[in-house]
Amino acid sequence: MKSFEELLREAEIAHGHLCAGQILGVRMAMLGCARLGIEDPRGADRKRLVTFVEIDRCATDAIAVVTGCRLGKRALKFRDWGKMAATFIDLKPATGEQQRAIRIAALESSKQRARGLFPQIEDKNKQQMQAYREMTDADLFSEQWVRVPLHAREMPGFKSQRIACSVCGEGINYDREVLIEAEIVCQGCASPDARYYQPLTEEELANPNNKAGAELVPQPAL
Ligand SMILES: [Zn+2]
Ligand SMILES: [Zn+2]
After folding, report:
1. Strand locations in the chain, DSSP E?
2. C-alpha angle 192-197-200 in degrees, rounded to nearest 5
3. Considering every ligand atom, which ligand is closest to the CA of 164?
4. 69: number of CA atoms within 13 Å, CB side?
5. Does residue 78 sit in helix, strand or coil?
6. What spacing in Å lies between the alpha carbon of 191 and ligand 2's midpoint?
7. 157 forms bridges with which residues in the sheet?
8. If you measure from the C-alpha of residue 168 to the centroid of ligand 2, how many angstroms do you get, rounded to a whole number?
9. Which ligand is nearest the CA of 195, by number?
10. pLDDT 10s digits, 175-212
């Protein structure tokens, strides 16, 4: 494992700036790896780790840098819970178990702690950056050993067959299809009103500035 400072520098480059979230994310991921006994998550141990993140914010980028888990490798799983927390799963623990997993969450009290430690620093981000470097793991995070049910098709190297949607014809991977009256249908065609996108109507295409038809469709809960 590289040093905290080296990883933070890499996270800064990947993320585009240095912020309190980078420091928190680097520390959270280093702690997760340490608890699992994973020394080299991006090298020798690179096929051992799957990470679930619960927020799409700054810290998430740092977690990806430290763990090497990426969305495109299927080793980074996103649950949109709006929580500063992540679960680190060792798929090949030295103990011989099927998996070992630890969920780590940032403590709500950490911000207040940062204020208390550095009241003289007015800028909140700078205050937190300084504090999050120095605070102990116990002051920053809660930890919990957990089990994560992971179907074979959710694993990073899973070879998926691809089948076509009977409505739109687009290919579907990883068993994400839905059966409707014995027809294979993709998620978008299965419930068109709940799609995250809506095709523009002829009228909207003709009048791009006409906002009448553009009110937002509420997103379904994830
Ligand atoms: Zn940031
Ligand atoms: Zn379809």
Report:
1. 49-53, 76-78, 85-90, 100-106, 141-146, 163-164, 171-172, 178-180, 183-185
2. 95
3. 2
4. 28
5. strand
6. 10
7. none
8. 4
9. 2
10. 999 999 999 999 999 999 989 999 999 999 998 876 65
The rounded Å distance from CA 78 to ligand 2 centre is 23
- The whole-angstrom separation of Cα 222 and Cα 68 is 25
The pLDDT tens digits of the residues spanning 112-163 come to: 999 999 999 999 999 999 999 999 999 999 999 999 999 999 999 899 899 9
Question: Rounded distance, CA 139 to CA 133, Å?
Answer: 11
CA gap 130, 39 in Å, rounded: 26
Residue 198 Cα to ligand 2 middle (Å): 13
| Helices 4-15 and 20-36, axial angle in degrees (round to 10) | 130
Neighbours of 108 (CB within 10 A): 9
Q: Which ligand is nearest to the CA of 11?
A: 1
Which residues, in sequence order, are bridge partners of residue 143? 104
CA-closest candidate to residue 67, choices 123, 136, 7, 122: 7
Predicted TM-score of the model (pTM): 0.89
